[in-house]
Amino acid sequence: MVEFERFELDNGLRVIFHKDVTTPMAVVNTLYDVGARDESPERTGFAHLFEHLMFGGSINIPNFDGPLQEAGGSNNAFTSNDITNYYDVVPVQNLETALWLESDRMLSLAFTEKSLEVQRSVVIEEFKQRYLNQPYGDLWLEFRPLAYEVHPYRWATIGKNIEHIKEATMEEVKDFFKTHYHPGNAILCIAGNLELEEVKRLVKKWYGDIPAKEKKVRNLPQEPKQTEFRTKTIERDVPSDVYTYGFKMAGKGQEGYYEADLISDVLGRGKSSRLYKRLKKELELVTDINAYVLGSIDPGMLMLSIHPSDDATLEQIDAEVWKVLDELKSTLIEKPELEKIINKVKTTKAFSEQGVLNKSMALAMNELMGDANLINTETDEYEKVTVEGIQEQANEILQKTNCSQLIIKAKKNDE
Amino acid sequence: MMNRTIAPETKTVKHIDFQSPEIDTLSNKVDVYSMRKTDDETVRVDFVFDAGSLKTSKIIAQLTGELLFSGSADKTSDEIEEKIDGLGAFTGVEVSTEKSTISAIGLREHIVAITQTVVDAIINVNFNPKEINQLLQSKKKQMAISLEKVSTQARRAFLSDLFKNSPYGDLTQLEDYDQIEQSHLIEFHKDKYLSGLQYIAVVGALNDEDLNKIKELGNQFSKEEVTTIDYDYSYTPNNIHVEKEQALQTAIRVGRVLFNKQHEDFIKFSVVNTILGGYFGSRLMTSIREDKGYTYGIGSGVAQLLETGYFFISTEVGKEFKDLTLEAIQEEINLLQTEEVSETELTLVKNYIIGQILEQSDGAQAMMDRFIAVETYGMDFSYYDDFIKQVNEITPKEVKELANLYLNWEDFIVVSAG
């Protein structure tokens, strides 16, 4: 059980407080309800670029990192298709420093030309380092627009291409801040060996006067139901082929999500999973194969990642993959297999929510999904899944007409 | 009206409470370290063997480690994995130059059964040729992919030149995967696993009964004394470039042989390193990322080996910025060598470093990691008290002296790849 308190300021800021007496650190985690899906198709990569700009100085404080480091703290942030999350870890006696810094950059950024110019370059280098200059680095840049034709999930968080980042203007940056960075669009989670009254006092002190803004109603184009198999083959300068399959599924918390998540585990999580045992151990058609779900808030994907053996053909592998998928649709799995999967989910959840930082992020994320207490009830949802439910969901999503496939072929050198 | 321009008062970290694990020694002389004061639901058990890559040739150590769950006379790998997964467990194999760590993580209620399964697998593995072959194919493929990365190419060129006179520089080649025989693995397993258990580390809220059961499992191994070898760490400063035409970025690795925590200058040099490139506000980050935008990240560090260590600076920059980056790095080092760091900056770095130690000692697992980190060098927690003391006391003058002693460009090997 993760205990917590919840309160809300007049300006709409939602605050979660979790008391943890075992740690000398305090965490200030700020989750903003904005991600790559909220970008304009002509200005992709913006949410992530903006994350960088949040470190370029705020209206009253020219340097974010310095004062935090001075207080013995550290920090980081990440952007996804759904959210942007910032976290600070400080010795508990210096909690107020983190609140002072975070509240000021929620109030307003410094918006200097220099900051925009430098972070533009930094993000461009990040684009190169993580996506363009790595083998298979552009896999997601190719796969997303194949699977999603309408919904903003069709572009990756880093952006469709470097040009969008190069052309970002200061006006657009300021606009983005105004629209998405305000108290009503944020969830603040504070955790540590603290008292609720003191936390309330400090939060009101630093965030109370930040003006409320209207929360922009999200009205994203919905992805129409996929009705045909999609496939694309590209050639890249890589040592071997990689196949990626994606099946549309429910978004996090939507009906069918937990079943689909467990299906991905049954199929391809770990060395006792069905695809691994059949295609790698038994048939030796692949050197590696695994399955997972993206876990997005809007309808997402169940993914298969396949590294073929050198002498196996796409046809052979594809045929055997579908046999395994079809078996899940035609035959109920046995209870022991379901229990095994649920045991793994329990261990993962327990392990990934250990420590004050992990708990803070999980609390904030669950609050965004509607209720911070989901951190305590999520396991129950998995335990409610039945073997019939697995079969039903398998038939729903593991269809060829629901499948997108990206084939990356290794460029062969001319002899 | 709030005055947001004034920073709240901060209090420096005065003291960190280090808690030693319980230490028991089994009849076979294997030590068992346990940290049990925790509320966490999961337990982690590490079996650490004298089975690092330096203990043998080629990739025998790595392969043996990764094949420990590949099956015995009575159980196939599928059956073992099924059992482990069924208990909701995760296993890990980490083979370093010195040792091999086999980890099992699971919920408290299952951890004894999980550990039994793991130990059973390790002891009875018979190195099935089909399993060996499947692993070889998989790893060859992974290595081929890794070798395409400029960061890998730079790291390999750097290490193989820096340690050309010792096995630390003898890196795995793709051809090594074609020269493995089952007998190599069987022999290594017998020597370094069956007779090579060094210690067991347990982190989790186990009761005495469960902890004793895990200790019993440790008695199934024996412990041979570890022999240390004196290697030749001499090197020659050098400049190496590995070209990769279509690369969009160049990976840079710069550094030299230095020392580990057993050396009297290690702690104070750590402060110098942090100022130069050991945190987000470092000289290198401020100049090369935040001011010039050449890179997504640049940093420096001191990597510790058993008998020595090495200093390195590492980054990936836009290809067109390679020379400018090397110049900028030299400029920052030169600055440290000629101008004393200000008290303001030095205080910030000190506070940051101590805050980091606090964060990295937070919780039972972190505390165990801190313990192992000093135990490996024959030291105890007083090392951290000394660390904090020396960090608090270092002066700008000392920083400059150490920069002049250890950061001379003429002493470096400079590698670029891409």
Describe what this molecule looks like in 3D.
The complex is a heterodimer of chains A (415) and B (418). Chain A is an alpha+beta fold and 415 residues long. In chain A, strand 9 and strand 10 form a beta hairpin. The model of chain A has no long low-confidence stretch (mean pLDDT 95). A 6-stranded mixed β-sheet of chain B has the order 1-2-6-3-5-4. In chain B, strand 4 and strand 5 form a beta hairpin. The N and C termini of chain B lie far apart (55 Å). The chains are: A alpha+beta (415), B alpha+beta (418). The interface between A and B is large, with 79 and 74 residues.
Characteristic key phrases:
heterodimer, A: 415 residues, alpha+beta, six-stranded mixed sheet, five-stranded mixed sheet, 15 helices, 11 strands, 42% helix, 19% strand, globular, B: 418 residues, 14 helices, 18% strand
List the helices and strands of chain B in order.
EEEHHEEHHHHEHEEHHEEHHHHHE
Let me know the largest β-sheet of chain A: 6 strands, mixed
Q: What portion of the residues of chain A fall into strands of 2 or more residues?
A: 15-25%
Provide a count of the helices of chain A: 15
Oligomer designation? heterodimer
What low-confidence regions of chain A span 5 or more consecutive residues with pLDDT below 50?
none
- Strand order in the largest sheet of chain A: 1-2-6-3-5-4
Rg from Cα of chain B: 24 Å
Question: What is the topology?
Answer:
The complex is a heterodimer of chains A (415) and B (418).
Chain A: E1 5-8, E2 14-19, E3 25-32, H1 46-53, H2 65-70, E4 74-79, E5 84-91, H3 95-107, H4 113-132, H5 139-147, H6 162-166, H7 170-180, E6 186-192, H8 196-207, E7 230-236, E8 242-249, H9 257-268, H10 274-282, E9 286-293, E10 300-308, H11 314-330, H12 335-352, H13 356-368, H14 374-383, H15 387-397, E11 403-410
Parallel strand pairs in A: 2-6, 7-11
Antiparallel strand pairs in A: 1-2, 3-5, 3-6, 4-5, 8-10, 8-11, 9-10
Chain B: E1 22-25, E2 31-35, E3 42-49, H1 60-66, H2 77-86, E4 90-95, E5 100-107, H3 111-124, H4 129-147, H5 150-162, H6 182-194, E6 197-203, H7 208-218, E7 238-242, E8 249-257, H8 266-277, H9 283-291, E9 295-304, E10 309-318, H10 322-338, H11 343-359, H12 364-375, H13 382-393, H14 396-406, E11 413-417
Helix pairs in contact in B: 1-6, 3-7, 8-14, 9-10, 10-14
